[in-house]
Amino acid sequence: MATQKARADSLSLLLFTLRSGKLMAINLLKVSEIIPCPPLTKLPEAHPHVKGVATLRGNSLSVIDLSRAIGEMPLADPDGGCLIVTEISRSRQGLHVQAVSRIVHCLSTDIKPPPYGSGNRSFITGVTRVDNTLVQVLDIEKVIHGIAPPPHEPHPGEVSEEDASLLAAANILVVDDSQVALQQSVHTLRNLGIDCHTARSAKDAINVLLELQGTDREINIIVSDIEMSEMDGFAFTRTLRETPDFQHLYILLHTSLDSAMSGDKAKAAGANAILTKFSSPELTNCLVTAARAVVFEER
């Protein structure tokens, strides 16, 4: 069907290597700077994958030993290499890598899902080819979650009895290619007593929408990641807005980046709202707003 044709957005990837020399990548929008590895202060009770703390312009920065975090051999020179400083999901950290290669520009359709059988232990969200060389796109959210999982929030947010009823009546689809990020959203919904549908890609999400269309479980609210392979959240949103059967859907885009950076683009694509990962109370508030909007539209 036409709705399953991928729409392409451009993106930039920062390529880097670890000891094995194979190319890995991270979305450039998640990178704030690249610096030589500075002296580190070791913390005796830190997670074993945290090499230490660096001081960067007067501020402390936790440095992750990326090689150990994803199960690869340690760097040949443990004090060499460089740091990729990232700012995602409301946190800032340095990734210790062997070397940064270069920046490449590609289309979201160039990023393919990980090979079948990669399994839940994989730390990649997609693969692509650069100059005929395979490049693995890092699932940085999973790396960070394995080291510093978010605090347990048994009460994702106070909701009134009326709003709880609205949420219970909503049919929600959560779309995210990061298993960790997907589980965080699902956990929030379950704490609200809500069951939801899930998909690991825009293509899978469209299949779910088509399968449930015309049933009593027909989806009316979508919570979608932006940084996905093959078809990102912006292209997914535009595709839905151009498809008569899905134009009415309430679309909340969920991003590991600062949502202020992508707000205009989200609005232009047709999203109803955008939210930075991950805050359970804020996600709850956004879902309440979505449920109210859906009910108002149905009336």
UniProtKB/TrEMBL annotation:
Residues 171-292 form the Response regulatory domain. Keywords: Phosphoprotein. Residues 10-149 form the CheW-like domain. The modification 4-aspartylphosphate is found at residue 225. InterPro entries: Chemotax_regulator_CheV (IPR024181), CheW-like_dom_sf (IPR036061), CheW-lke_dom (IPR002545), CheY-like_superfamily (IPR011006), Sig_transdc_resp-reg_receiver (IPR001789). One of its GO terms (biological process) is phosphorelay signal transduction system. This is Chemotaxis protein. It comes from Pseudomonas xantholysinigenes.
